[in-house]
Amino acid sequence: MYCRECGAEIPQGAKYCTSCGLPTEEKASQPPQPIEYREGPPVPCEGISPSHVAVTRNVEAPATVVEPTRRRRRPAGVTICLAMLSLGLVFIFEIIGYLVSMIPGMPLNQEMLVTLAGAVGACLSVVILGGRKILALRKDTIVLALKKGWWVLATSLGLTIYGVVETMLTNETVVEDGWLSRLLTVLVLCIGIGIFEEASFRGVVYGSLLDAGGKSRRGLYIVTVFAALLFGMAHIDWFSIDYADPLSILQAVLKTIQTGLFGFFLCALVLRSKSVWGAALLHALSDFILMIPGMVLLDGPMDVSYVSTGEEAIAVTILYLVFIVCYLPLAIIGRRMLSEQPLPDYGPFHKER
To answer: Phi and psi of 240, rounded to 5°?
Structure first.
């Protein structure tokens, strides 16, 4: 027989199970039958469908990465003050160029040496402020400048053709001797002017103002217009104007607006391309084309006065009005580029930590 508790075989006549010790006075049972398991569909828990039963895995949740708060290394006001002080370096280089021009036997004239020296000082100021990236010469910046600025070149060419035709009709001599030498001189001068003014106004001045106004679209427009007006006003000698002559004041205002429209476009171009070289090339080509009739063909003076008196005053005033009308499309192109610019854009001198 077998123990009903553990199923062990018990010898006949034993009073206790030799395995578990259970008394055998009670009737022993047969060996326990194994439990039969049958396969069938799973029975879900009450109120929970099988599709809602989730499999729990011991998966460690990814750690949340908390980026440190980025702060300005220097305030925008400090950047602007440093930029204005760096323009003193440009002035020092211009003085050096003037002194070098006084050395006997110099192949370059005073105007060219002062301009080229100022261009070097302006580029050095950009580097000192931490904006050397906008001095990187890239092919795409040149292509963008020619693509966006074809209108200014076409306008300059049209006005130059008009000037040549007028010269042919009003002067017996159309081309003075030595025009080829003057052509090369004016070309070098215009290249120097392009680099000098773009590195100074679009690099140092506009680049520092962006550190304060580049956060919002409204701020971007404000600093761009302000930098453009400064550029226009810098072309006028405000101390030599006869403020008793309304026509002189009108010429100064119109010239500021005309040059400001061009400067507005150049600001947007530099902001888009992140380089001053495309704007410098466009600036140099425009000036060079406009200088051909007076300075190259007729050997006129290279020191230009933008405010005239006497009989020329009316003609110059009309010319500025023509320029303003011709430059209005540039302002539209510049505004479109500003509206498409991703923000915030704090310019080349912005520092964070």
So the answer is: -100, 0
Q: List helix spans (H) across 198-245.
A: 206-213, 217-233
Candidate from 46-50, 146-150, 237-241 with smallest mean pLDDT: 46-50
SS3 313: helix
Q: Any idea what the Cα angle at residue 238 is, between residues 237 and 241, rounded to 5°?
A: 95
**Euclidean distance between the first and final Cα of the chain, in Å?**
89
> Closest by alpha carbon to 323, among 238, 246, 258?
258
Whole-angstrom distance, CA of residue 306 vs CA of residue 241: 10
SS3 72: strand
Mean pLDDT of the chain: 84
Structure tokens at 305: 């006065």
Query: Peptide bond before 344: cis, by omega within 30 degrees of 0?
Result: yes
Non-local (6+) Cβ contacts of 76 within 8 A are 211, 212, 346, 350
SS3 250: helix
Q: Using an 8 Å Cβ cutoff, are 129 and 349 in contact?
A: yes
pLDDT digits (tens, 9 = 90+) for 107-136: 888 889 999 999 999 999 999 999 999 999
Tokens of residue 153, six digits? 């070149």
